Amino acid sequence: MNLSVGRAGARCSSSNSNSSSSSSRLLPRPAPPPVPSARSILLKRRSPTAATAAAAVEAAVDPTFVPRDPAVRDGPWNAVDAGLVQTAQQQASALHGSSSSSSSSSSSVAASSAGVVLLGQTAEQLGELAKSMGQPAYRGKQLADGILKGAKRVADIKGLPASFITQLQEAGVKTGRSAVHHTVRAPDGTSKLLLQLGEGRLIEAVGIPAQDSSKERLTVCVSSQVGCPMRCTFCATGKGGFARNLTAHEIVDQVLAVSELHGTRASNVVFMGMGEPLLNLPNVVAAAALMQQQLGMSGRAITISTVGVPNAINRLAQHKLTATLAVSLHAPNQELRKQLVPSAAAYPLEALMQDCAAYFKATGRRVTFEYTLMSGTNDAPEHARDLLALLRHYKLMSHVNLIPWNPVGESEFERPSRARVDAFKAVLERAGLPVSVRTTRGLEAAAACGQLRNMHQKQGLSNPQQLT
Ligand code: SF4
Prior knowledge:
This is Radical SAM core domain-containing protein. Keywords: 4Fe-4S, Cytoplasm, Iron, Iron-sulfur, Metal-binding, Methyltransferase, rRNA processing, S-adenosyl-L-methionine, Transferase. One of its GO terms (biological process) is rRNA base methylation. This protein is of the alpha/beta class. It has helices at about 5-20, 25, 40-45, 50-60, 80-100, 105-110, 125-130, 140-150, 160-170, 250-260, 280-295, 315-320, 335-340, 350-365, 380-395, 420-430, 450-460; strands at about 180-185, 190-195, 200-210, 215-220, 225, 240-245, 270, 300-305, 325-330, 365-375, 400-405, 435. The chain has two domains: about 55-100 and about 180-460, Aldolase class I (TIM Barrel, Alpha-Beta Barrel), CATH 3.20.20.70; about 120-170, no CATH class. Helix 5 (about 80-100) runs parallel beside helix 11 and helix 7 (about 125-130) crosses helix 8. The site of iron/sulfur cluster (SF4) has 12 residues, from loops.
């Protein structure tokens, strides 16, 4: 079900009336001297005219830059933003419909091989494709195995007769693997890959290796969209525009690419790269299923992160995934949250928290709350106490993950000191709330979402590589 502007508006007004009944808990505290006021935060941002002009210049310099829709403005969430969000959701459903129609039944795959993507198809479906092209069914398993073993082009798949390879190429069958445009590695082993999609656009994937009681782990952070329409103020991706949703196979491709770079299987996947996963829910759910069915991952090893999309958390619950839901909160009250996450105007904090509580009730799964700490903005002990009160009020089993903010070029925010992070954490810990601080990994690799892509897009791209 797609987001409707009308429904979002109705939800907004009903939640606002709720918030007034609990105003003593949710009203923002007066800002202490080092905390900028709402007005000062807004005033420090570039004017809409300057931002639009800058986007236009970047678009002219680099055709693959994802410019904002010219009607999009910095500042409060408005009808243009709501329209773009609705469009993104409609496109996600249509994209899933078109990609799943070629994978939902073996006969449909075989009926038309043109435009077929091998990644994401089962061996049985690929067997039907092979049979439709006059080949024995076991070729399907060869195709499926070849893709999972790293074949980037159809010609790279081992054991196929040359005539079948030619047949597949002439039919326009693709592996579904993207070209690796650029990789960077930080001294701690964290990697960041820029993958170039068929049309030339870039997406990011991050690999985070770790040693866990003599077991090697590799967490892969994947993107779910090209760009993002949510405009979160502290996010590099949110400073650009939105181009399109990613298909399920384009998401799985990121996991394969990072695994190949690190030479080990992915143990965990987090949807915390570019894009808002719940705007692309059908393809994200399909990708999570593929990771389990074809990459042998546990559902519990997958985390889906969201800043909140009306009516989406309940739809996620209906899929009965065992994945972890991580909600990006970033503020303990609606006023401050609206400044940091403009889309919160259409999905107030109370409505979001009620949906999280319902999700916990429906799934029994603990919800993780991500809280990015920005110095002087949301990192005071008072904010921690308000956060504690908020989580206690909704009585859902939760875990708080504190994320010291990663610098983004041209941003007004600052990374908090270690002392401020520790003080914030101590307030939650003393109250017995499970809390962790995300270790900043690969800062040198520009590991915050959108940063590496922005850097490269400003430098322009070489010609897109075509993989077949
Ligand atoms: S934080 Fe996530 S949802 Fe917000 S703009 Fe960035 S990518 Fe989009």
